[in-house]
Amino acid sequence: MTTPSNGISITHALEPHDWSNEETAAYEAAIEAVNGAVGAYSARIAAEEAKPHPDQAVIKEARAAQTRLAREREELRSSDREQIANARQHYARLAREVREGTA
Fold first, then answer.
1. For the chain, what is the domain count?
2. In this structure, which long-range contacts are made by residues 40-44, counting pairs with CB atoms below 8 Å and at least 24 apart in sequence?
3. Mean pLDDT for the chain?
């Protein structure tokens, strides 16, 4: 399971729920989609920091986005199928846009 930047596993926040294999896979995929977006911002930060004159505003914005994503990841509810489906789609698209420089 994923551990947020504060070092605490998010599993403590999961409500009791009998999960099907499909629900488990969907929830894990949603978490990984968020993690992919966080990683895309990490790559943006690293690329900016590698420049001779890094733009601190770009770095600050990317770090703020990572913080926001961590909060959003913690708000995912395994029992909310619609939320999980939307999250998988949204965060996968966001990660792609960040990598492409369009977000």
1. 1
2. 40/94, 40/95, 40/96, 40/98, 40/99, 41/65, 41/66, 41/69, 41/98, 42/66, 43/98, 43/99, 44/98
3. 88
